[in-house]
């Protein structure tokens, strides 16, 4: 069967492409921005990529077009598909019908922590020998790829010979609340029909599609409604918005984490963590990840893996070998005593928790935060009253934006602790000029940020 993916180069659709190809489908795709690393990653898997959305792609005659949620009405290829009444489907629905239908789906939802928690959970299951499939919105360093089908393979198995007996029953998916497609405005996660579901936290986000927090909570309620009563919901017991969602109706057993009488943690010296359930000690976790948010992510992953049959002690052993996720507090290098980190944080809560975790780790040493506010919600000034507060732990802040008026009005309470810049080279020069040994530079953006990380490390090297 041949599928043609329209809008293939995003992490989610690229993951679908990889899984489909691994499952034996012929896969082609197109996107407006076809460039490395996604282009080279897909091409290395034998997936033909076509730049742009030309109507000539109709001539490929795929069995079905799989439509990404970046595609809108007016897109020339989409208009031709509609005019010819050709078969098309959204990415989440295709995944549900062709990959997830007969599997034990473990879905990780929430405003923050989805990628890290999904990565932890997939790694625990893999460490336990369950070989799960997964689709994650980042690249877990333990795997080096964002998606796989999950094959229980003998040395004699060939890809062309795969059958259902050789596919792991378990599949971990990052369950995003963003909308599915221009023709399906439901959240993606309602398509996944999980047996195990994690609700990490709920905050207002995605202001381009949700008018308010109530609209987001309604989508989470729809998600909860489809989880079976032989499944499990794992919920952050500290989150009031999750509690409000669950009071609208819950038909599934519930386990909470983050509260004293349920699953919780205690931070010890040297970043060691005691794990407790019902005040009974379950084990001690030794790892390098920073912050309370990662301890909560770990609890959620341990509980979900336990539901799939993995003992807690095995899960703790797995997490002790967990290497984090690229772009989640990823240390990019240290030059002249200055350490540079890359982080995906783009929501005030994520920014604050990341900075708090780094502050706990470095003590009184200086933290220099470099922020590129580029998400749709950030640009709409939805968090204008919270952004400056989320940066309080930083000793100095650089804001990279071409809308200096917005930035200055948003971050004015930081006074002389903030600099504004709209030129990348000048920004790098300013950072180099202010840094000194033992400083920690935290770069935060949900985009590529012009390759600032390597450029900054090179500039620091030249400045020694």
Tell me what you see in this structure.
The chain folds into three domains: 2-91, NAD(P)-binding Rossmann-like Domain (Rossmann fold), CATH 3.40.50; 102-319, UDP-N-acetylmuramoyl-L-alanine:D-glutamate ligase (3-Layer(aba) Sandwich), CATH 3.40.1190; 330-462, Protein-Tyrosine Phosphatase, Chain A (Alpha-Beta Complex). The protein has 15 helices and 23 strands. The protein has helices at 11-22, 38-43, 76-83, 91-100, 114-127, 213-225, 240-247, 292-307, 312-319, 348-362, 376-379, 384-390, 404-410, 424-434, 452-462, and strands at residues 2-6, 26-31, 48-51, 64-67, 88-90, 104-109, 133-135, 147-148, 170-174, 179-181, 184-187, 196-199, 232-236, 254-257, 263-267, 272-277, 280-286, 330-335, 338-343, 367-371, 396-400, 418-421, 440-444. The strands form five sheets. It has a seven-stranded mixed beta sheet, sandwiched between helices. The chain has a six-stranded mixed beta sheet with strand order 18-19-23-20-21-22, sandwiched between helices. The protein is globular. It starts with a strand and ends with a helix. Residues 327-447 form the Mur ligase C-terminal domain. It catalyses: UDP-N-acetyl-alpha-D-muramate + L-alanyl-gamma-D-glutamyl-meso-2,6-diaminopimelate + ATP = UDP-N-acetyl-alpha-D-muramoyl-L-alanyl-gamma-D-glutamyl-meso-2,6-diaminopimelate + ADP + phosphate + H(+). ATP binds at residues 110-116. It holds the Pfam family Mur_ligase.
């Amino acid at each position: 069967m041949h599928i043609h993916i329209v809008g293939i180069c995003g992490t989610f659709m690229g993951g679908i492409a990889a899984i489909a190809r691994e499952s034996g489908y012929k896969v082609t795709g197109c996107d407006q921005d076809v460039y490395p690393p996604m282009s080279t990653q897909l091409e290395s898997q034998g997936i033909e990529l076509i730049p742009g959305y030309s109507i000539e792609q109709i001539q490929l005659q795929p069995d079905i077009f799989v439509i990404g949620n970046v595609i809108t009405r007016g897109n020339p290829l989409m208009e031709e598909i509609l005019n010819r009444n050709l078969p098309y489907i959204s990415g989440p629905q295709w995944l549900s019908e062709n990959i997830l239908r007969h599997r034990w789906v473990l879905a990780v939802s929430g405003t923050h922590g989805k990628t890290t928690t999904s990565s932890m959970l997939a790694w625990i299951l893999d460490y336990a020998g369950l070989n799960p499939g997964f689709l994650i919105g980042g690249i877990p360093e333990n795997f080096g790829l964002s998606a796989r089908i999950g094959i229980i393979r003998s040395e004699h198995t060939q890809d062309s010979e795969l059958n259902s007996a050789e596919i792991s029953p378990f599949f971990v998916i990052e369950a995003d609340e963003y909308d599915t497609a221009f023709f399906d405005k439901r959240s993606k996660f309602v398509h996944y029909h999980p047996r195990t579901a994690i609700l990490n936290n709920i905050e207002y986000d995605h202001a381009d599609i949700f008018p308010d927090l109530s609209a987001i909570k309604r989508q989470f309620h729809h998600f909860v409604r489809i989880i079976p009563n032989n499944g499990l919901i794992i919920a952050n017991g500290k989150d009031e918005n999750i509690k409000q969602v669950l009071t609208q109706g819950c038909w599934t057993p519930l386990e909470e984490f983050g509260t004293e009488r349920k699953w919780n943690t205690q931070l010890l010296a040297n970043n060691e963590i005691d794990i407790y359930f019902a005040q009974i000690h379950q084990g001690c976790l030794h790892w390098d990840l920073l912050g309370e948010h990662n301890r909560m992510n770990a609890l959620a992953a341990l509980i979900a893996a336990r539901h799939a049959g993995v003992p807690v002690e095995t899960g703790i052993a797995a997490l002790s070998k967990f290497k984090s996720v690229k772009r989640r507090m990823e240390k990019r290098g240290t030059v002249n005593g200055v350490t540079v980190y890359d982080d995906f944080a783009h929501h005030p809560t994520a920014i604050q928790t990341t900075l708090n975790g780094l502050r706990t780790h470095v003590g009184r040493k200086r933290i220099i935060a470099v922020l590129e506010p580029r998400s749709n919600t950030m640009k709409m000034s939805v968090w204008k009253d919270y952004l400056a507060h989320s940066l309080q732990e930083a000793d100095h802040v650089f804001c990279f934006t071409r809308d200096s008026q917005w930035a200055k009005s948003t971050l004015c309470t930081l006074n002389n602790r903030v600099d504004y810049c709209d030129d990348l080279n000048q920004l790098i020069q300013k950072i180099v000029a202010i840094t000194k040994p033992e400083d920690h530079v935290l770069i935060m953006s949900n985009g590529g940020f012009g390759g600032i990380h390597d450029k900054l490390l090179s500039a620091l090297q030249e400045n020694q």
